Amino acid sequence: MAETPHPDNPRGLPVAVVTGASSGIGAALAAALAERGHCVALAARRAERLAAVAAQIHSRGGAAFAVPTDATDPGAVAALCAAARARGAVTVVVANAGVYGRGLATEVTAAALDAALRDNFWSAFHLAQAALPLLRERRGQLVFVASFDAKKGLPMDAAYATAKCALAGYAASLRQALHGSGVQVGIAFPGRVDTPMIDHVAVPWASPKIPTERAVRAILWLLRHRRAEVVVPWWCRPLWWADVLSPRLGDWLVRVLRLDGSVRG
Ligand SMILES: NC(=O)c1ccc[n+]([C@@H]2O[C@H](COP(=O)([O-])OP(=O)(O)OC[C@H]3O[C@@H](n4cnc5c(N)ncnc54)[C@H](OP(=O)(O)O)[C@@H]3O)[C@@H](O)[C@H]2O)c1
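Above: inputs. Below: predicted complex with NAP.
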């Protein structure tokens, strides 16, 4: 029997869940998914920012609803997924929420590592756990937004790189475990993106910040072609390949190109 459309999704559009939708990549991706015919569940902690993103999507004729959520809380994430399922069939879930912090690997504390794992790994894990049953219903797609730091960690990004590596490792295992299930797992590895997250970071000429839209296009490409991974921008790839060939060559490139960047002010 057909489901009765929810007032937030009167056209019965497929539902996409995006965490970290109050800012940066998540807000822009949510708008792009709405333009492409999804009713988008917008999740993040700042309710007023989510309401603004939802209003912008509505003003363009799209469908979206805000679900203020702390993604590090498994109960809140389960409630987010239940709210999404109540609006319609969930076909896309994007684990995008994350927090960046700097700290040299020789000085990083266990507390900083715990916090980075909570914000960047556990938040995505809780979402995957809660969303998988919904995605299995519709052979849906699960995307994890990692970081290029998971391909080549930087000395100053110790905790963040550790957490994004954990995320990439989990996501790659999950992708293989779900082979044949119909659920597709994709991982995005963005380099530096011009969002509030790294406003305070001055970057070298060899690693400029790309516009948010460019990162969003890469994630949409991943979704459209059901690809396993995307690295964006393209100029991250030579460093990655050099590092696969010889990690010491990769280390040298990080040093001579000063890829660590610095904090402004
Ligand atoms: N910018 C870059 O250079 C870059 C590069 C590689 C990867 N990434 C990754 O891209 C993703 C998006 O980052 P961005 O650049 O768009 O940064 P951003 O503008 O700072 O957005 C981060 C988003 O994550 C949300 N968030 C953080 N902790 C959360 C929590 N506990 N529960 C729910 N939401 C939470 C924030 O919302 P609230 O504060 O409202 O909760 C915000 O919406 C992150 O995973 C980041 O690691 C960014």
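The chain has one domain: 15-263.
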